[in-house]
Backbone:
């Protein structure tokens, strides 16, 4: 479809150029300076865009990430392939003692979801299918790790132990739980992110102090993942993170069935089913959407963020909660000029500039659009794709955007924004 007023050829050319310039050979950095290593969910989402350009390279992106899976199944959130001074906290702070250094926490498990998109959309299935098949046991091992390390009481839902794991680092969802994290003994440190990006668009120092305290706590436990859950004062069940895991388990099952791995399929179906059944415990009647559950405090969090809308991508079509979520997305669309804000602007804590406390992110929009399509609202999904293209055509390939005036925020020439533009060009 053509979109009047949008120069699609220019957007496509620019998106491809950004992915090329951030390609360090087998992996793509999110952006120069601010994020000079390989990030887990960035790479999986970047692979969706790369698949439109070069399927072989898209698979390599994922294979490079998965090559750094830990023996216990965890796939870390950062792989530090090469030294770089422009980022803090680097490998010395993490101290995970891996041959190629990595961080010691994880990130939203979009891997299964991304792989299925690559497999289903494959132009060269003879090349893609065996490489995807080889990855399935590794995806299954990661999902198994989530069930044991992050859901030790078998509730069906997993906890994140650090805000960085959510990918939505400074979301309002974490404020109360993070406030209980101490800051004693962290020592002095120098942030690098605020040398690249205006501090008003980044998490605060108070948040960084607590982020670091958690890293130091986990490091002192030798990164023994089996011990971290109960030892962390920050244990939060994020509906967005869990929706992604449930959907990835569903997608893993579908791929395993198609590629002749019935045991993986049965295990993944079981995990997705248990997750879906438990998700209803995160429904917040007052907010009319899902909300995070603070597992350490035993309370549902009063915070209407985009994380609570992502279950759209995991609920079975026809699920009774789906219509309410579709209505919430429509309400947010009409509350701002550029949807979908990462937090409800009606909340006084909304901040149009500050990272995940209000700005819109094209990767979140991509996942919301997927959910809308799943529930029969392809029209609304296409609108989101068109909005995204118009926004980037006007403001450039920013990391995130002000939902009120559309200005680009955070890092520039951002890989996953480029990848989402390539995705939206197929959807709009
Ligand atoms: C950062 O450093 O801002 C990252 O989001 C952590 O992964």
Residues:
């Amino acid at each position: 479809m053509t979109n009047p007023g949008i120069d699609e050829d220019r957007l496509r050319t620019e998106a491809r150029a950004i992915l090329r310039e951030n390609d360090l050979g087998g992996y793509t950095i999110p952006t120069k300076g601010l994020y000079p290593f390989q990030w887990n969910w960035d790479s999986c989402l970047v692979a969706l865009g790369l698949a439109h350009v070069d399927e072989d390279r898209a698979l390599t992106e994922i294979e490079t990430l998965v090559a750094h899976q830990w023996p216990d199944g965890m796939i870390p959130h950062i792989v530090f392939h090469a030294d770089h001074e422009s980022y803090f906290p680097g490998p010395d702070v993490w101290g995970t003692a891996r041959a190629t250094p990595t961080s010691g926490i994880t990130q939203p498990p979009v891997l299964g979801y991304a792989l299925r998109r690559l497999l289903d959309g494959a132009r060269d299935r003879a090349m893609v299918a065996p490489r995807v098949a080889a990855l399935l046991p590794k995806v299954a091992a990661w999902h198994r790790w989530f069930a044991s390390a992050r859901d030790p009481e078998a509730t069906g839902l997993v906890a994140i132990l650090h805000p960085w794991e959510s990918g939505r680092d400074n979301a309002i969802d974490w404020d109360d739980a993070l406030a209980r994290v101490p800051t004693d003994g962290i020592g002095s440190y120098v942030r690098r992110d605020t040398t690249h990006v205006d501090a008003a668009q980044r998490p605060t120092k108070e948040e960084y102090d607590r982020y670091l305290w958690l890293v130091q706590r986990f490091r002192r436990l030798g990164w023994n993942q089996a011990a971290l859950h109960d030892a962390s004062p920050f244990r939060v069940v994020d509906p967005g993170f869990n929706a992604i895991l449930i959907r990835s388990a569903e997608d893993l099952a579908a791929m395993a069935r198609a590629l002749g791995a019935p045991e993986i399929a049965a295990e993944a179906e079981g995990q997705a089913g248990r997750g879906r059944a438990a998700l209803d415990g995160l429904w917040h009647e007052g907010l009319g959407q899902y909300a995070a559950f603070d597992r350490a405090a035993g309370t549902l969090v009063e915070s209407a963020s985009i994380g609570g809308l992502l279950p759209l991508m995991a609920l079975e079509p026809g699920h009774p909660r789906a219509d309410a979520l579709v209505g919430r997305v429509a309400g947010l669309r009409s509350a701002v000029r550029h949807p979908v804000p990462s937090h409800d602007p009606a909340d006084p804590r909304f901040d149009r500039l500050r990272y995940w406390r209000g700005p819109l992110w094209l990767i979140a929009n991509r996942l919301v659009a997927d959910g809308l399509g799943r529930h029969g609202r392809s029209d609304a999904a296409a609108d989101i794709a068109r909005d995204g293209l118009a926004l980037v055509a006007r403001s450039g390939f920013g990391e995130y955007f002000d939902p009120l005036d559309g200005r680009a925020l955070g890092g520039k020439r951002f890989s996953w924004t480029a990848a989402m533009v390539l995705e939206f060009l197929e959807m709009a």
Observations:
- The two ends are 7 Å apart (CA to CA).
- The mean pLDDT is 97.
